[in-house]
Amino acid sequence: MGCSLLPLFVAVLAARFVVADPEEHGPVDGAPPSKIAVVGAGIGGSATAHFLRQHFGPEVQVDVFEKGEVGGRLATVTVNHNDYESGGSIIHSLNLHMQEFVKQLGLKYRRNVAGKMAVFNGEEVILEETDWYLLDLFRLWWRYGISFIRLQMWVEEIMEKFMRIYKYQAHGYAFSSVEELLDSLGSSGFINMTRRPLSDSLLELGVSQRFIDEVIAPVMRINYGQNVSIPAFVGAVSLAGAQNNLWAVEGGNKLVCSGLLKMASANLLQAQVNSISPIHSGEGLQYQLSFTTATGTASELYDIVVLATPLQASVGSGVQFQGFTPPFDELPGSYHSTVATIVHGYLNTSFFGFPDPRLFPFASVLTTDTPDLFFNSVASVCPVNISAGFRRKQPQEAGVYKVFSPQLLEKSQLKTLFRSYYSVQVTEWQACPRYSSSQRLPPVELHPNLYYLNGIEWAGSAMEMSSVAAKNIALLAYHRWNRQTDMVDQRDLVHRIKTEL
Ligand SMILES: Cc1cc2nc3c(=O)[nH]c(=O)nc-3n(C[C@H](O)[C@H](O)[C@H](O)COP(=O)(O)OP(=O)(O)OC[C@H]3O[C@@H](n4cnc5c(N)ncnc54)[C@H](O)[C@@H]3O)c2cc1C
């Protein structure tokens, strides 16, 4: 299909997911829903179950369907009796939902183990962190002028605006689309940032091309496996995640998911949801979910359904929409494949220009967007449980490393990166959307009481983004059910909330 037709194609698809008659949302007598289904027990689905329980109260039955492991893209692999994060691993200190979950669940923050970073261009290390902060600043200024200051200010301004969401949500406001949500936080500026390449926004800001190539591109490669043509908004989310004040959950980030499901008293069904159909009966509008468990196929009726998994065909959720008028089409776009290879072995520091491993000071190596470079990053990783006496292994010792690459690593490539190894564990992720500035954001409301969480990933993919979407959907479902239109898509919330306080 020609590029010029794409926007039209996307608009037609979006129109097909439009909400039907608003009268169908909830019963006029104000009766609460009796059953709600959530499909997917990643952080998005688990957080949705938790927030649904908060808003709808203890009576409603919340069923969570999971076809794989609780945690989804938050997962660990075991190496030499220790567990390591193979999916989502770091959390920003300003990710307030994640912080609150950890607090409420009585989980602990995992201690941060310092380690230096370098950027490799396929031939040599072109940028390196040292032990001296002032020296690092001087070097950045020498090589890139004040680009890094401009960047820092830009990211901080965006984060400050993004933080408004927590106030809006604390006051109970919800949004019917990702566009509405972004518009309320950063006006048209945020929406425009989902539609223009990161590199264009940064150049306009006065950031140098060299800084983009040598610093920004490596960060995009490690976080999203993509280049600087990804939209500026997701680029900013990624750059926020490259700051210093980061943390993780002791024992593994996926503990948040199992903890939230438990706290929500949700019924976890180990089942693959195959189809969903609207049913109109004396009970009003309901949805029939048909699903397969280890013992066979069954179906159940629900008043409200939240789909908390990507629906793009490339991810393979397997959910079919049946009996909807007009029929639902597949959501456009696809997901980007990232391979996480966890290697227990000896890093080949010679490949990076350090023949003596004892002189290799880096814990992580990022890479520039260089043709033929077969990996995005390699980093020495710490287990999810860090004992008091833990120290990072030195490069001359056998350590555990995580390599991100766009494709499965061939044996010869592993031999290039490692002198020798004891074990190799591979996870192939459909990690995040394959971003493009021409891609429009998917809908949140697919049908009156049928919601889609993962559209938010097209603005930015991160644990906190799924958590923000989870809170939004729980609020939206609640207001829709109770016909509280004054709590949805309200304008000028910044000022309104000030006067409400
Ligand atoms: C390698 C990697 C590194 C990352 N690093 C970070 C990071 O450092 N920081 C960060 O914040 N984020 C990171 N992310 C992103 C983050 O992990 C995701 O944004 C987040 O975990 C998505 O959660 P989710 O619940 O929305 O989706 P998912 O975790 O994908 O959950 C969806 C769940 O639905 C289930 N499911 C699908 N179809 C069905 C069906 N038909 N029936 C029943 N169940 C179904 C799936 O099995 C899955 O468990 C990373 C992701 C990857 C892959």
UniProtKB/TrEMBL annotation:
GO biological process: prenylated protein catabolic process; prenylcysteine catabolic process
Domain of life: Eukaryota
Domain Prenylcysteine lyase positions: 127-490
Cofactor: FAD
Pfam families: NAD_binding_8, Prenylcys_lyase
Keywords from the named record: FAD, Flavoprotein, Glycoprotein, Oxidoreductase, Signal
Nucleotide-binding in keyword set: no
InterPro entries registered for this protein in UniProt: FAD/NAD-bd_sf, Prenylcys_lyase, Prenylcysteine_Oxase1
GO molecular function, one term: prenylcysteine oxidase activity
Signal peptide limits: 1-20
Methyltransferase recorded as keyword: no
Family: Belongs to the prenylcysteine oxidase family.
Protein name: Prenylcysteine oxidase 1 like
Organism: Oreochromis niloticus
Originating gene: PCYOX1L
